[in-house]
Each structure stands twice: as C-alpha cells, then as structure tokens.
Amino acid sequence: MKNNIPSRLHIISLGCSKNQIDSEVMGGQAFSSGMTIVDHPDQADVIIVNTCAFIQPAKEEALEVILSLAEEKKKRGRDLKLVVAGCLAQRYGKELLAEIPEVDLFIGTGEVGNIVSHLKKSKRAAVITKPDFLMSANHERVLPPHTASAYLKISDGCSNCCTYCAIPSIRGSARSRTPADILREAQTLADRGVKEIILIGQDTTAYGRDLKNRPKLSDLLGEMAAIEGISWIRLLYAHPAHITTDVLEAIASHKKICRYIDLPVQHIDDNILTAMNRKVSASRIVEIIGEARSIMPDVALRTSLIVGFPGETQKRFERLLDFIREIRFDHLGVFIYSREEGTAAAALPPRISEKEKERRRDVIMSEQADISHAINQRLIGTIQEVLIEEKNDRADDQFVGRCRRQAPEVDGVTYIKKTGAKIGRIVKCKIVSADDYDLFGEIIKG
C-alpha cells in the first residue's frame, strides 16, 4: 500500500439482501476510485466485513468472521486493513473498537456513501453517525459477473417499530427513493444484462409514504414493467398492514411481474400481533391472502414467522400451527425469537426456554415440509419458465435455476436435467419430478 491507500479490496457480505446492496455500493465506489476488487481475502490489502445484527445468531456469525480475520491478520506479517461495516458496527462499533484491536475501522450504516474517504485514513476509529444513507442511481454497484438477477432497493430504514426489532435504530426511519431514480437504476441494470429485478426494502409496501407527492408502489411496478430488457420483476418484504388491492392488481396485470408475494406475517394470534406492534389483525391477514388468491389463483405465497415470542402460550402456538395448515403457504421460514437490547419486547419476561422455541420451530418446519412437498407434486407435468443461474456438479442435473415461484436464497431451486442450457437465459421447462423444496425439469425444445 502506498500512502496508506489500499489498492486491492475484498468484501464479505453477511445477512440480508439489503446488506448485499450496500456491499455492492461500497465495492462500486472503491472500484471507481481506482481500487481492484479481488475474489479472495488472501489477495487483498483491505477487507471489509459488512455485518448483520438483526438477531443473536447473526451477531454471532459476524463476530466469528471478524475474529477469524483478526487471527489471519496476525499471521500475515504484512499490511492489511480490516474494516467492519454495517449493522453490527452501527450497534456496537464503539465498544468493539476497544475489544478487537486488529480491526482498523468500524463504520456504521450511515457511512456507506463515504467508504473511500474512510479507507484513505490511517487512524483507527469507529465512525458511527446518523443512519440516514440512501443510495441513488448515481451510486455504482459491483455485481457478480454474468449475473442475471439483481436486487433493487426502493427504500431504506423502517418506521414500523415492531417491538422485537432493532432495525429502526440501526437503519433509521423509513425513507423512499423517488420513482424516477429507481427507474433509472432499473434501466441501468437492464442495460447490464440483468433479467430479473427484485424490489426490496425493510417494508416495500410502505413505499412513498414519506415523499411529498406520495407516489404509489402500484404505479412504480407498472412503470418498471415497461422497461425493455427486464424479463421478471419480483416484490419482496410486503408488510401485511400496508399491502393494498392496487398492488395486488398491478402484480396480476403485468406479465413481467412474478405472481409471487412475500408476506411476512410473523404470527396469527391477535394478542401476539398486538404485543409485537404489527398493526394488523389476524382477520385482516386472512383477508389479504384470500384477496391475493382471488385476484391471482396461481400466486405463490411466502411468509416468515417468529416462534417463542413472550406470551406465546401453547394454545397460541397451536393457533399458529393451525393457520399454517389452513393457508398452506408455498414457502415459509421460521425465526426463533431473539431478545434484543433496546427493543420494547426486551422488557417482557422471557417465559419460553430456548429448547421449547427450537421445538416449536421444528414442528412448524416439519409441517411445512409436508405442505411444500404436496404443492410441488402438483407442479409435476406443468410448464415453467426457468432462469438458469449456475452449473451443477450433479451428473443428471447439469444446471440450477429458479422459476417464477422461487425467490433466490430463501426458496428452493429448479434443477435442469441433461441439457446444454446457458447461464443467464430464461427457458421453458417441463417439471418432471419434485421433492420437499426443489423442482426438477427438462427444457422444452423449440
């Protein structure tokens, strides 16, 4: 390194897709400043660990990675700048600065846009400012080579203040990008060959409420569908308290928009929903699901749940289990309640043991495996569009992709049997078999 300015950067991105975009933005700024982005940490002069701190397991994973790199830094015997960014840094950076001397810099979520200037400084520091950064289409992003799918962050922060969640204190209050700025980035992604754009935010269905003219998410979806080059549009993180009929109708009206709704309900017992400050009732959740299926009978529904929240009696848990059996979500994930300092729920008595929380999670996931298996079996013989994403080592299934009903990372995949498919292409496949979570297809020629 010359003049303490590193030239080769490696970024490790932990946690959610929102964090991944921040990592891509930091990489883009570094690249624009003349740095080289390298694939492996042992090639780097500087390593950025972009961390998650949403729940305890995420914090533990981040600390494990940081401490491992700290040990590696000791062994190398040459200059290496170790930077910790993101949510863990925002929450605990000042304390960790003293506890992990191998880390040169902690920067909070508000400093993503200033990463290059921070990398040029030589003094150890924890720079934790107001978490108000909001990316724009002017921010370059470093995407994986030949990627056919990319996330697009339409907003950042959250103003919902769910009692179990520390995100508002880590990411700040909700703030939306303008439609024009979002559409400009969408066009840029399309020009780069991206086929699928996945709209994300802490709460995408709260989009525009903080802007002066209150633009509507449904209008944004329609305008994005008009962009040439984009084949699929997918909407994630639709809060059940904020999703509206016009959004459902917009999804149904445009062929490019995947008939896929990510609706994180968290629970179905009204007492628990109130204690969580979810601002939605059980009856309204059921009504939304019914409306979505009425407008789009072929819609794929995903949800996430929290088990073990304080006050979740066995009866309330069984109510949640009955709800899962009744609704039959296509995809489902379960979080074990994590008591987070600084949240309103942290003051509630922790009445449920970790062992019981794990048991409840396992019961729901076992139930969901059966539901998902039955749904997938009904897909055998159907024709699905599949986005080919990577090669596979399995002899019989040479490529891995996803159909419209599968979101990346959180859902199953579609394996393509014995074919010369090309990565980044969308092909029509006949589903020939299925297991609990994955589909197996063959390309239809012609």
Walk me through what this model shows.
This protein is of the alpha/beta class. The chain folds into three domains: 8-127, Methylthiotransferase, N-terminal domain (Rossmann fold, 3-Layer(aba) Sandwich); 149-379, tm_1862 like domain (pyruvate-formate lyase- activating enzyme), CATH 3.80.30.20; 383-443, OB fold (Dihydrolipoamide Acetyltransferase, E2P). 34% of the residues lie in helices and 22% in strands. The chain has helices at 17-32, 56-76, 87-99, 115-119, 167-171, 179-191, 217-225, 245-253, 270-275, 282-295, 314-327, 354-379; strands spanning 8-13, 36-37, 46-51, 81-86, 105-107, 125-127, 149-153, 155-156, 175-176, 196-200, 232-235, 257-262, 300-307, 331-336, 383-391, 397-403, 414-417, 426-434, 439-443. The chain has a six-stranded parallel beta sheet with strand order 2-1-3-4-5-6, sandwiched between helices. A six-stranded parallel beta sheet has the order 7-10-11-12-13-14. Strands 15-16-17-19-18 form a five-stranded mixed beta barrel.
Give the key terms.
OB fold (Dihydrolipoamide Acetyltransferase, E2P); six-stranded parallel sheet; Rossmann fold; alpha/beta; pyruvate-formate lyase- activating enzyme; 34% helix; 3 domains; single chain
Spell out the blueprint of helices and strands.
Blueprint: E1 8-13, H1 17-32, E2 36-37, E3 46-51, H2 56-76, E4 81-86, H3 87-99, E5 105-107, H4 115-119, E6 125-127, E7 149-153, E8 155-156, H5 167-171, E9 175-176, H6 179-191, E10 196-200, H7 217-225, E11 232-235, H8 245-253, E12 257-262, H9 270-275, H10 282-295, E13 300-307, H11 314-327, E14 331-336, H12 354-379, E15 383-391, E16 397-403, E17 414-417, E18 426-434, E19 439-443
Parallel strand pairs: 1-2, 1-3, 3-4, 4-5, 5-6, 7-10, 10-11, 11-12, 12-13, 13-14, 17-19
Antiparallel strand pairs: 8-9, 15-16, 15-18, 16-17, 18-19
